[in-house]
Amino acid sequence: MDIKALLIDDEPLILNHLKNAIPWSELQIELVGTARNGVKGLELVMEFEPDIILCDIRMPLMDGLEFLQEIRKLGYETEVIMLTGYQEFEYARLALKHGVKDYILKPINYTELEASICKLADAVRSQRSEKRLAERQMKRMTGLAHEKMMFDVLMGFTADVPRYLAAEDEQGDELSYALILVDLDGYAQRTVSWTEQERKLWNFAVRNVLQEAIPDKGLHYIVVQMRQGEWCVLLQLERERARYAVTSEQMHEWARQIQHAVREHIKLTVSLSWDQGPIEIQALSQTYMKLQRGLMLYAGHEQLLPFTEEELARDAASVSEWQLVEEITSGLKMYDKSKVEQGLERLKAKLPLISEHSALGIEKFLQYGIIHLLREMRELDFMNSSEEGMMWQHLQHSHSVKDLLNVITKLESHIKELEINKKSSELLMISAGEYIQSNLSTDIGVDDIANHLNISSSYFSHLFKNHYGETFVEYLRKQRMELAKTMLRLTSRSVTEVGALVGYSDRRYFSKVFQRYTGVTPTEYREQEDPPGSSDEGNIYDAEKNKQQI
Predict the structure, then answer these.
(1) Domain 166-307 is in which class?
(2) 458 or 311, which is more confident?
(3) β-pair partners for 224
(4) Any residues with CB less than 8 A from the CB of 22 and at least 6 apart, and which?
(5) Which uninterrupted H or E stretch holds 258?
(6) What's the longest Cα–Cα distance across the chain?
(7) Residue 240 CB: number of other CB atoms within 10 A?
(8) Residue 175 CB neighbour total at 10 angstroms
(9) 327 and 395 Cβ atoms separated by less than 8 Å
(10) Are 232 and 179 in contact (CB under 8 A)?
(11) Among residues 30, 31, 29, 34, which one has the least CA distance to residue 12?
């Protein structure tokens, strides 16, 4: 039974008729109890939380209206049908004003009552369905916002997570993390001949598997795609009283579960590196780069690479070497061609020193460095499939230092010919800004705008940060909140309407974000600002502003 009902009437005969004359089982309704006064009825409401209540008005100890007022005070949204005699008709009308769904006159017409109950049960089921849908949408919206923000944190674009993205009883700065980096083995070379659509589909499939790969129900984690074929699994911990005292054994087990899930469902293999933490949010970007470096330099096929003290010592020896490669990728991400060219020249000039100190050997170091650069150039749309395919062919047949240097020379030539046009980038970002302003009321994300501009999501994220000086998530939230402030100040629209017009279909979530942004609730803000309400000024703004921007 999916619906629960409670019967309250001081006449035993009527209670008996109500129990037997209505086909409760056929209506898929469970009769959870009966009471002969409002006091007992209130106890049963608190015990069973019924969805539907049939209640008499005239009762001893606590009458129907008093009972109704009490359950509303306690926050129960139970649907109520009042039973009343003809002489109490006006009393029944008053009850309707207090949230009663219907009233039935005595003597009771049970056919009429059954129809009313059936209609009400259908309404309860519909409301439940709508509520579940709203909750799923709310969860999805919050989850996507969290993922977008954590991508920015991991990339080093920002060092904080807004407090409204934390759980109700937590603060963002009280959280710490364990981090697992997942990388598809040989992904870049394996997928060079795939279309962009094929790559997206496979990456989407792997991401879905990762989201369900760790079965521990009490563990909260999110999956953030960093680039094609690479994901961060962020395990959320509490700093003061960790839900999980994460051990190395648990991390190994979770890593094996991830490997098994991807192999089982996608028929691909992954290598993983991790830091069991606890990692403060400000250190996530550095940890991500550390794990990425470890996988690039030391992992092989389907490897598990925990970041232990030994790994830390080995990593220290490789940091200065890999820094040269990171300088080049930094130039690519900043669209600074001269910095890229200078970095490549410095790399070639320092090869003798790398040869003396590298724990890898110069050949492997160069191979991994080139692979890393090729992956970054794909993410930034700096190579088409044909050009990338030729580079991979060259790399596949390059084993000596001389051959690998030739590949680097070819990369350098490609970069010199590449038009990293700053003006073109600015035009893209102007277009992005216009797109955002035109779609503030919709659930837009990085992927939507990147597709609109016909560039990759990673390329868009870097361009946006460089152009606007803040991340897409920060910029979008600010634009929405500023528009909401203006609408609250200059229009008479309800808080729910304002929230929907700036992209928040759930009033509670909108109010939460707004309060975090301004320090007050939307209603408090409107009262402070003393808006003109339905004045001509507000109505003019209401019509014109929404015509232009919504």
Answers:
(1) alpha beta
(2) 458
(3) 232
(4) 110, 113, 114, 117
(5) helix 248-266
(6) 103
(7) 6
(8) 21
(9) no
(10) yes
(11) 34
Beta bridge partners of 180: 233, 274
State both tokens at 535: 């004045």
Q: What are phi and psi of 231, to 5 degrees?
A: -135, 150
Q: Would you give the DSSP letter of residue 173?
A: G
**DSSP β-ladder status, 221-227 and 230-238:** antiparallel
The CATH code for residues 422-549 is 1.10.10.60
Which residues, 6 or more positions from 5, have their beta carbon under 8 angstroms from its beta carbon?
A: 24, 29, 30, 31, 32, 50, 51, 52, 53, 54, 117
Per-residue pLDDT at 249? 85
Rounded CA separation 154/147 (Å): 10
Q: Look at the chain and count its residues.
A: 550
Cα 70 to Cα 7, 35, 42, 62, 75, distances in angstroms: 16, 16, 8, 10, 9
- pLDDT band with cut points at 50, 70 and 90 for residue 93: low
Q: Reply yes or no: is the peptide bond before residue 60 cis, omega within 30 of 0.
A: no
The residue extents of the domains of the chain are 3-129, 166-307, 317-420, 422-549
The rounded distance, in Å, linking the Cα atoms of 325 and 173 is 33
**pLDDT tier at 321, thresholds 50, 70, 90:** low
Predicted pLDDT of residue 547: 38
What are the two backbone dihedrals, phi and then psi, of residue 7, each rounded to the nearest 5 degrees? -110, 130
CB < 8 Å & 24+ apart, contacts of 16-21? 17/108, 17/110, 18/54, 18/108, 21/110, 21/114
User: How far is the CA of 361 from the CAs of 357, 382, 401, 483, in angstroms?
Assistant: 8, 29, 10, 57
Other CB atoms within 10 Å distance of the CB of residue 121 = 20
Percent of the chain whose predicted confidence (pLDDT) is above 90? 4
Distance from C-alpha of 262 to C-alpha of 211, rounded to nearest angstrom: 11
What fold does the segment set 3-129 form as a domain?
A: Rossmann fold (3.40.50)
Count CA atoms closer than 13 A to 11's CA, side-chain side. 14
Token pair recorded at residue 294: 């470890």
Retrieve residue 271's tokens: 């290598």
The rounded distance, in Å, linking the Cα atoms of 151 and 202 is: 20
Of 220, 79, 88, which is closest to residue 146 (Cα–Cα)? 220
Name the nearest CA neighbour of 251 among 153, 173, 177: 177
Summarised one tens digit per residue, pLDDT across range 195-240 is 777 777 888 888 889 988 887 766 788 898 888 788 999 888 765 4
Residue 413 structure tokens: 């030539």
**Helix intervals (H) in 380-440:** 385-396, 401-417, 422-438
- The type of residue at 347 is L
Q: What is the pLDDT of residues 393-446, one digit of tens each?
A: 777 767 677 777 777 777 767 766 655 544 467 778 888 888 888 888 777 888
Question: Would you state the torsion angle of the CA atoms of residues 508, 514, 519, 525, taken in this order, to the nearest 10 degrees?
Answer: -90
Distance CA(123)–CA(129), nearest Å, equals: 10
The fraction of the chain above a pLDDT of 70, given in percent, is: 73
